[in-house]
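TICKET: design request
STATUS: open
ATTACHED STRUCTURE:
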């Protein structure tokens, strides 16, 4: 349990802070260049710092450097970081695969859940949100752009997006804000993100407020911006290489 009023905020070393500042300048420059190439306003692309595996002190340092959105992919780790940083002025995004039994925990600290991909999860999150939150929880449907692969990173098939979206819209305690996807490993990200853009257009026919396209990571954010991403989720280009096998979506 957090006692945020007494918690001493963790602090990154000056050296680490400088490293993060350089990473952030670099990533912001890449986003700006990608927007210029695509004829888009950089204000239309929100940078979400994916802080998984990195300490809470890094999250605090990034926030002090102007980052307003942070993401985690594991409930236990996210919950602990949130508890030590509860007074920090950032939005917490949950981007990992989520089990139903974690819904009750996640709805207490997450502002946005990007990884809704099946009806049972809608039911679990909706129930938990109505019991434990005052405001609806913002959610995105994670779209599987790698159908037929056994990678197991989750996601709903493009053909099932409409029906899952209706379930979210009917829930009352969840607010559908858009779509999220990860480009398939080893495939052309442009083709994948173009497909995601099409799915988004179709979704907005029925849900005009579901405008977010959460796509693009360290390796492919330019492609995502080219295809309309409104939110890019960047980890390693910002914070450094994660220890292999620990929290990475890329094996
Ligand atoms: C880890 C992760 C990212 C960030 O990946 P990087 O390649 O480190 O930028 C983005 N999205 C999801 C869902 C992730 O799990």
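STATUS: resolved
RESOLUTION: sequence designed for all positions
ATTACHED SEQUENCE:
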């Amino acid at each position: 349990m957090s006692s945020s009023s007494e918690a001493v905020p963790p602090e990154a070393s000056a050296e680490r802070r400088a490293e993060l500042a350089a990473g952030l300048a670099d990533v912001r420059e890449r986003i700006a260049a990608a927007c210029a190439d695509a004829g888009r306003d950089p204000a239309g692309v929100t940078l979400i710092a994916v802080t998984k595996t990195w300490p809470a002190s890094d999250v605090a340092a990034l926030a002090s450097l102007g980052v307003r959105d942070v993401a985690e992919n594991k409930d236990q780790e996210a919950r602990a970081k949130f508890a030590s940083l509860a007074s920090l002025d950032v939005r917490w995004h949950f981007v990992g695969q989520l089990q139903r039994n974690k819904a009750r925990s996640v709805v207490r600290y997450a502002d946005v859940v990007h990884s809704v991909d099946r009806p049972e999860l809608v039911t679990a999150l909706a129930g938990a949100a109505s019991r434990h939150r005052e405001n609806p929880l913002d959610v995105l449907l994670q779209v599987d752009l790698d159908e037929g692969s056994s990678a197991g990173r989750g996601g709903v098939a493009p053909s099932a997006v409409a029906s899952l979206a209706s379930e979210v819209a009917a829930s009352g305690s969840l607010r559908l804000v858009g779509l999220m996807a990860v480009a398939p490993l080893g495939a052309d990200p442009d083709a994948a993100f173009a497909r995601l853009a099409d799915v988004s257009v179709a979704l907005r026919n029925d849900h005009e407020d579901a405008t977010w396209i959460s796509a693009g990571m360290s390796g492919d954010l330019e492609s995502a911006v080219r295809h309309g991403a409104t939110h890019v989720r960047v980890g390693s280009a910002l914070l450094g290489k994660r220890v292999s096998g620990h929290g990475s979506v890329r094996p």
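CLOSING REMARK: The radius of gyration is 17 Å. The chain has one domain: 14-242.
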